[in-house]
Amino acid sequence: GNSVTQMEGPVTLSEEAFLTINCTYTATGYPSLFWYVQYPGEGLQLLLKATKADDKGSNKGFEATYRKETTSFHLEKGSVQVSDSAVYFCALRNSPGYSTLTFGKGTMLLVSP
Amino acid sequence: DVKVTQSSRYLVKRTGEKVFLECVQDMDHENMFWYRQDPGLGLRLIYFSYDVKMKEKGDIPEGYSVSREKKERFSLILESASTNQTSMYLCASSPSQVTHSNQPQHFGDGTRLSIL
Fold it and tell me: What pLDDT score does B2 carry?
């Protein structure tokens, strides 16, 4: 079956530090990969996505590269801000026509000034 | 912008009550989903629907049912609420993946449900 494993949090960083949140997956077929972000008191919103191997998704300074050889999709940002404090979820869709997503358990990021 | 609206942000009910959580989306999406979110467990899919009057069980359907009488509305029903159903409930919608491959799910802000 499908599964997504994320590093446990919370991840605590100072403003302007470099961020990496690890995500690895197990899937049959040719999955598409997503990062969602949940700000306090809100629902999830899509941060970035990649639909095939070696694709790089990027948005708001965040990046993630779809690595099929290591089954990974690690989230990175060069310089975090206090406003990046949120919970980040890695997710996969097993194949393009498939409706449902499999989510990781989420990683909380806390950025201090 | 897509808007997914959940009827309540906070709800308190008693054990044994029948509870309805309502979700409405305004983008004519075919797919709608109900998740629950618990600390340390992430998001778990309860039910989803890919068309009016159609439903599919997710990973944890026990103790829940759903209703989709109109395309824009998807209701989650707790037939007889229990304390272990205290949780954050999130609704989401997306277009059909057959015609709109890899389009994301759009989420509501959630309903925090407490069962006393």
Answer: 67
